[in-house]
Amino acid sequence: MRKTIAIACVVAPILLGNLSVSAIAVPLQTSNNGQDYYIGVEDLKQWSCGLYTETMERKLTNVGEPQSQAVLNYERTMGYIGYDILPYATTYATIGFGNLKIGEGFPASNNSAEYGVGVHFNLLDKGIWDPTLTEDKIRVTASMEYIASNPSVSGYGMNNSNINFDELSGSLIVSLVNDVQGNKTFLPFSLSLFGGLLYSDLTTNVHSVKQDGEFGFIAGLEVFYTESVSMFGAAQEIGDPGYSAGLNVRF
Q: How far from 130 is each of 135, 139, 174, 192, CA to CA, in Å?
């Protein structure tokens, strides 16, 4: 039996080598020790990533001639990857696509790629000692983000032309976090109710088009399935209602 296995161990690499000699040109030497690798598991703890989608409505005014108003219906799906430059600060890059639909009197646009950068700050994590409250912690976070897009538009004398949309946004969020008691196999790790203020400045290279209102609010729920994986859903409003949802992963 041992002789048969030994023959197989010798013959099999010879046969495989003849079939795929271009695929393995050097001896395949690997280590099972994570510390031997350039990027080990410990090195990823400063990284995060996720996906999110949102819909919103914004009132726009064309101050040119003739003056008109319309509602911008917007859908956006984005992915991001972040890195902790400080224990309380995360910078990130985001990329995805969006779909803009603008009402009568404005160009109608289609799907377009979007990209941007942002920074997120963890400002406060305070435990609640009052036994009459169910929440365990109060957290305060803030963020700033810039996203750009260049959709192709038609109508309003701009057939198959491109228009630049730039959005500078920010938020200040307060969360009430409850660490769920019980078996974590069947229950989430934590629940977080959050709400706060939003800022969004939407500009275009069509200087006659202006937005109505820059400030709004957001409220939602985030479920932490583990300390590192969470999902959220929120309602938000900046002049008109919108919604957002997403998945966050920390390594």
A: 9, 16, 18, 18
Q: How far is CA 199 from CA 9, 60, 113, 144, in A?
A: 66, 16, 22, 9
pTM for this model (two decimals): 0.75
Burial 42-80 (b: 16+ CB within 10 A, else e): eeeeebbebbbebebebbbbbeeeeebebbbbbebebeb
Domain range list for the chain = 45-250
Topology adopted by domain 45-250: Porin (2.40.160)
Write the pLDDT tens digit of every residue in 44-97. Answer: 778 999 999 998 887 776 655 556 666 677 788 999 999 999 989 999 999 998
